[in-house]
Amino acid sequence: MALAFDEYGRPFIIIKDQDQKFRLRGLDAQKSNIAAAKAVAQILRTSLGPKGMDKILSSPDGDVTISNDGATILEQMDVDNQIAKLMVELSRSQDYEIGDGTTGVVVLAGALLEQAERLLERGIHPIRVAEGYETASRISVEHLEHVANKFEFGVADLEPLIQTCMTTLSSKIVNRCKRSLAEIAVKAVVAVADLERKDVNLDLIKVEGKVGGKLEDTELVYGVIVDKDMSHPQMPKQIEDAKIAILTCPFEPPKPKTKHKVDIDTVEKFQTLRKQEQQYFDDMVEKCKDVGATLVICQWGFDDEANHLLMHRNLPAVRWVGGVELELIAIATGGRIVPRFQELTPEKLGKAGLVREKSFGTTKDRMLYIEHCANSKAVTIFIRGGNKMIVEETKRSIHDALCVARNLIRNNSIVYGGGSAEISCSIAVEAAADKYPGVEQYAIRAFGDALEYIPMALAENSGLQPIETLSSVKSQQIKDNYPHYGIDCNDVGTNDMREQNVFETLIGKQQQILLATQVVKMILKIDDVISPSEY
């Protein structure tokens, strides 16, 4: 694209290959952008809530994913339009920051854009719409602080955390086991949490899965599970009070870094070389035995001779363990990762109450359990399921539950779900709109109307009459001045979300509103689109 001037000094733009491109400006460009973003939001709308539908996604290489997690669906979709990619980034931002609410934030952004389109058609400038939305989002965030409740919890009373995680899991495929999975997620987070600093390092929680068994067999292991087995089939399968040497050096003779060649022309020379190699192996094994190690975990492999020697010296070993797993084992057992045999000392050994090898079904698959560790700050959630898709979706669901529990430890404020928070914010925004004399009040009212799309989608996905259900709950909130009435998606018989124990984190809900508003403002300010014609 280049700028040129005609003979009268008037500027015009020269576009390279302009016969292959088209250009949209002004209101047409804004409508095109809004249509692209709404198309993405419409895809996720039916996945919202406990009765939301699942999507099946097929990758180019034939892998199939079934999920109703907004971030996963958008990550797997092949999106070309640049504005639609902004919606994908929006969902990803919510996932990175909060870990939950990835579907709701995209649906809310789509609703805000739909309302903005009506205002643009009425001649209101997009900047004034964006300013009105900014004001309304500030009102909503402040109102959420007002209607939020705080709850106290401790290691002895984890029920509030479990109830909130159950709300998150109720919209997933795994909702039939939501109580047990929520308990596992909360116990895992509490095990690695620093409650004094209100900090949780989710990297210390390893989520491992194995196809087979049933969802109810999912368990929490206070330690580390490694998808490996003992290096020799005759090594012991269970070691109590294990002292573990964690090595990143290989069980093999040292090799020079330069190119070398060894000429062996007699039997004596070959026997000397073999004895020297065997001596290296003997020294390595002896160093491990001398410091008191009863199990060796090595990042690298070792050949059959070293394996045979380890077995005869009664020193069980595990080989080819990944770097991340080694770090978790070191954290859990209180050991140190040793890069050279010369640095191996008794103080650097990790300690575990029980190390056992467990086999599954008839497939001869084996995994190593390292349990009852000296430092239980590293835990593993071991997921079972009937097929790979169930295991992967359960992993994603557990991730959401872990993030919610972490957010509650950081900030123990909650709002009630079922669309009650959105309806309450909508009422507050509509009441505040009258205080603004300019055209921004139209945008503020539109923001309030957009907030109602969330409870309306919940009602629609639950098989209820959306408009009738929403108007009934909204009038009930205004009449009783009680902000916790929401959509009864599970047909319990009451609209009181506090009574149903349907919670959401305050910071998650605030982040949804702020992120959606930011992206909508960005889209509204784009008024010129130059694209290849196939777009």
TrEMBL record:
<dbReference type="GO" id="GO:0005832">
    <property type="term" value="C:chaperonin-containing T-complex"/>
</dbReference>
<keyword id="KW-0143">Chaperone</keyword>
<keyword id="KW-0067">ATP-binding</keyword>
<dbReference type="InterPro" id="IPR017998">
    <property type="entry name" value="Chaperone_TCP-1"/>
</dbReference>
<dbReference type="InterPro" id="IPR002423">
    <property type="entry name" value="Cpn60/GroEL/TCP-1"/>
</dbReference>
<keyword id="KW-0378">Hydrolase</keyword>
<comment type="subunit">
    <text>Heterooligomeric complex of about 850 to 900 kDa that forms two stacked rings, 12 to 16 nm in diameter.</text>
</comment>
<dbReference type="InterPro" id="IPR027413">
    <property type="entry name" value="GROEL-like_equatorial_sf"/>
</dbReference>
<dbReference type="GO" id="GO:0016887">
    <property type="term" value="F:ATP hydrolysis activity"/>
</dbReference>
<dbReference type="InterPro" id="IPR053374">
    <property type="entry name" value="TCP-1_chaperonin"/>
</dbReference>
<dbReference type="GO" id="GO:0140662">
    <property type="term" value="F:ATP-dependent protein folding chaperone"/>
</dbReference>
<keyword id="KW-0007">Acetylation</keyword>
<keyword id="KW-0832">Ubl conjugation</keyword>
<protein>
    <recommendedName>
        <fullName>T-complex protein 1 subunit epsilon</fullName>
    </recommendedName>
</protein>
<comment type="function">
    <text>Molecular chaperone; assists the folding of proteins upon ATP hydrolysis. Known to play a role, in vitro, in the folding of actin and tubulin.</text>
</comment>
<dbReference type="GO" id="GO:0005524">
    <property type="term" value="F:ATP binding"/>
</dbReference>
<dbReference type="GO" id="GO:0051082">
    <property type="term" value="F:unfolded protein binding"/>
</dbReference>
<dbReference type="InterPro" id="IPR012718">
    <property type="entry name" value="Chap_CCT_epsi"/>
</dbReference>
<dbReference type="Pfam" id="PF00118">
    <property type="entry name" value="Cpn60_TCP1"/>
</dbReference>
<comment type="similarity">
    <text>Belongs to the TCP-1 chaperonin family.</text>
</comment>
<dbReference type="InterPro" id="IPR027409">
    <property type="entry name" value="GroEL-like_apical_dom_sf"/>
</dbReference>
<keyword id="KW-0963">Cytoplasm</keyword>
<keyword id="KW-0547">Nucleotide-binding</keyword>
<dbReference type="InterPro" id="IPR054827">
    <property type="entry name" value="thermosome_alpha"/>
</dbReference>
<comment type="function">
    <text>Component of the chaperonin-containing T-complex (TRiC), a molecular chaperone complex that assists the folding of actin, tubulin and other proteins upon ATP hydrolysis. The TRiC complex mediates the folding of WRAP53/TCAB1, thereby regulating telomere maintenance. As part of the TRiC complex may play a role in the assembly of BBSome, a complex involved in ciliogenesis regulating transports vesicles to the cilia.</text>
</comment>
<comment type="subunit">
    <text>Component of the chaperonin-containing T-complex (TRiC), a hexadecamer composed of two identical back-to-back stacked rings enclosing a protein folding chamber. Each ring is made up of eight different subunits: TCP1/CCT1, CCT2, CCT3, CCT4, CCT5, CCT6A/CCT6, CCT7, CCT8. Interacts with PACRG. Interacts with DNAAF4. Interacts with DLEC1. Interacts with SPMAP2.</text>
</comment>
<keyword id="KW-0206">Cytoskeleton</keyword>
<dbReference type="InterPro" id="IPR002194">
    <property type="entry name" value="Chaperonin_TCP-1_CS"/>
</dbReference>
<dbReference type="InterPro" id="IPR027410">
    <property type="entry name" value="TCP-1-like_intermed_sf"/>
</dbReference>
<keyword id="KW-0597">Phosphoprotein</keyword>
<keyword id="KW-1017">Isopeptide bond</keyword>
